[in-house]
Amino acid sequence: MAADERDAKDRQLDGDRVDSDRPLTTDTGVKVGDTDNSLRAGARGPTLLEDFHAREKITHFDHERIPERVVHARGAGAYGHFRPYEGLSDVTAAHFLSGPDVVTPVFVRFSTVAGSRGSADTVRDVRGFATKFYTEEGNYDLVGNNIPVFFIQDGVKFPDFVHSVKPEPHNEIPQAQSAHDTLWDFVGLQPETMHMMMWLMSDRAIPRSYRMMQGFGVHTFRFVNAEGRGTFVKFHWKPMLGTHSLVWDEAQRIQGNDPDYNRRDLWDSIERGQFPEWELGVQLVAEEDEHKFDFDLLDATKIIPEEEVPVRPIGKLTLNRNPDNFFAETEQVAFHTANVVPGIDFTNDPLLQARNFSYLDTQLLRLGGSNFQQIPVNRPVAPVSNNQRDGFAQHRVHRGRTSYFGNSLGGGCPALGGGSGVYHHYTEKVEGDKVRVRSESFADHYSQATLFYNSLADWEREHLVEAFRFELGHCEELEVRQRVVANLNHVDHGLSVRVAEGIGVEPPEEEAGPNHGRSSPAVSQLSTTFGPVVGRKVAVLVADGVDEAAVDAFREPLVGAGAVVELLAATDGAVRTSEGGVVTVDRAYTTVSSVLYDAVVVPGGPESARTLAGDGGARHFVLEAYKHHKPVAAVGAGTDLLAPPLPDEVTSAAAGTARTELGVVVSPEAGEESVAEFTRLLGAHRYWDRPTASVPA
Ligand code: HDE
After folding, report:
1. What gap in Å lies between CA 202 and CA 461, rounded to an integer?
2. How does DSSP assign 285-347, residue by residue?
3. What are the boundaries of the region Disordered (predicted)?
4. Share of residues in the chain with pLDDT > 70 (%)
5. Ligand 1 pocket, residue 218 CB under 6 Å
6. Mind listing the pLDDT tens digit for each residue in 628-683?
7. Closest CA to 523 of 262, 202, 178, 295
């Protein structure tokens, strides 16, 4: 498919797209001349029942809401395509993975889990990463998360887990938060949650952007090749921009400043033509190696460390088109783990088995019956030909007398398929007693939680400790806090002591067992991609008298590298420059906040710097960005804005020549070197070594 060519899904949707450029009509196509006044008996009289237009209008409105998803209610989606790097026919018969010539249209929906549909984006939570591949052999859904493990091992516990994390049932508080008693009560009583809780308390749970987030299929799935040979497979999505996160304090402030932060970021990037991309990778395990690990491949609370089985990159996902209508597409898209194509099959992971039941079941309720696959966003590009008839909102007009298999009156159609493209379930021998037990091989709940902890960078560990303290510190019951601390003691003694000390409960006296000392560096965000500044937002603070040359010196190369640069002043409009010109202001800093930007530049110009330094709003902007470890650049007189209470190391640097101190670039003028250094810092995401505890922002 050429880059400018429209894919099969896009073309298919043309038949469903409707523009509002025609005269107003009723639902039955009758032109309407007045939609502001209902039909009355007398100008001041009662409304008449025969006003079919008013009744229809109000009735439709009354029925506009459908049940939101019971989990993952809050989300944002986009279309794009997937292209393999190479053919994978040695391991899978899946046609969409057969080679780089096969480009498959996709729809991806990202989501948070616990909050309701109108909740804020930047809450501490797992993110959903669900991909619908519209393949030529039918739809394949990879319904994953941004964390590679899960809370529980058996799907029968899913309602318990979700009930515990959702707002508490008596007062429906708190919304989209995990910092409350019922979740941690559940966690304390279910040690199998411990590995996932480590990830959830890490920075993974507050992604900077959906574009900077990994995705995982979580379960071990099975590839099956044309000869019927199976290979275990774990799926990984790796963002080309690297995996980067917010700071917790910042994430909380964004919830108020821009609750749509992640959704907007995705939408804006695609509108700007900066298409988000991920590489799909697979970890492959031969059937005969199923039992060679010290955990069970069927246990979704475990990763296969990348150091043991490397991730093989197999193709690239690009999102390049925003939906036309949120409800029609993003809300009505229906994912289902059992939507598989030939070459991809399940394993006996008890969590996956439950999901294969749950997703279809939930769509039947949410989308009002059995014909939801006919909704445009869900409709396959592969032809659909079957004997399913009737049901609510049947949109297809099936012709012919027969709707049963094994017919002569319909010429035997639709006939059974043959050859390639037919789905054959993998032949697996299963036998055993009918029992309600958990396999012994699922019993180790702590080793990989410890592995995760051991693998983190120092700053990641600090964030993790702070997160546990924040969350448990919101639990009213000390007993709940204490029980979680006791479980943490099995992960790492030092960790449990530090958490306990922050939340007023007894630290465990002795370690529950020695830390095994093993690590998997790949799980640290330190091992991600750094460098690209595409779509990163830079605020440039300006006032009358600003040094225009300094503004341009930063703006031009940053925009050239793909960053979004906005000029902020006390009010909208324009400011005078020291050179006698004017520059346009993009926004008033009173309407935004530093938390919505990745970095700040304060250009020189004595008058501009004086005005900004005298404005609490501007000073707070810089201080807060500093507090959140963001790169800051100050040029010439702009360094005045760095004056106390920023630490001495930074302010004293301002007096010298061009230099970088604690992630702050200060220079007498905006030379190429300082701009390049600032761009490097921007691409490095955050300057974690900067101590910020004493910064009052
Ligand atoms: Fe889901 N999950 N889930 N889940 N899940 C749903 O399906 C469920 C699990 C995930 O953007 C629901 O259509 C059970 C793991 C995503 O539309 C529901 C179990 C993973 C999405 C459901 C799990 C996920 C969902 C709610 C335990 C990561 C959003 C609405 C056995 C691998 C998809 C819906 C979208 C949504 C059930 C566990 C990811 C109720 C029973 C593990 C990304 O069917």
Report:
1. 8
2. EEGGGTT-SSS-TT-TT----TTTSPPEEEEEEEEEE--S-IIIIIIT----TT---TTEE--
3. 1-43
4. 99
5. yes
6. 999 999 999 999 888 776 777 777 766 667 888 899 999 988 889 999 999 999 99
7. 202
Q: Best mutation site among 213, 218, 351, 355 for ligand 1, i.e. most ligand atoms within 8 A of its Cβ?
A: 355
Residue 111 Cβ < 6 Å to ligand 1: yes
For domain 447-527, which architecture applies? Answer: Up-down Bundle (1.20)
Class of domain 537-683: alpha beta
Confidence check on the interface: ipTM exceeds 0.95, yes or no? yes
The 8-class DSSP code of residue 47 comes to: B
Residue 4 is predicted with a pLDDT of 60
CATH H-level superfamily of 75-149+208-374: Catalase core domain (2.40.180.10)
Q: How far separated are the first and last CA of the chain, in Å rounded?
A: 51
In DSSP notation, 373-435 reads GGSTTT--SS---------TT------SS--SSS-STTTTPSPPP-STT--------------
Name the residue ranges covered by the structural domains of the chain. 75-149+208-374, 447-527, 537-683
Nearest CA to ligand 1 atom 39: 144
Q: What is the pLDDT of residue 588?
A: 97
Residue type, 488: L
pLDDT of residue 470: 98
Q: Which residues of the chain have pLDDT under 50?
A: none
Query: pLDDT at position 649, please?
Result: 77
680: annotated binding-site residue? no
Q: Which of 53, 81, 95, 145 is catalytic?
A: 145
Would you call 72 a catalytic residue per the annotation? yes
**Predicted TM-score of the model (pTM):** 0.97
69 CB near ligand 1 (under 6 Å)? yes
User: Are residues 209 and 129 in contact, defined by beta-carbon separation less than 8 angstroms?
Assistant: no
145 is catalytic: yes
Whether 366 has a binding-site annotation, put simply, is: yes
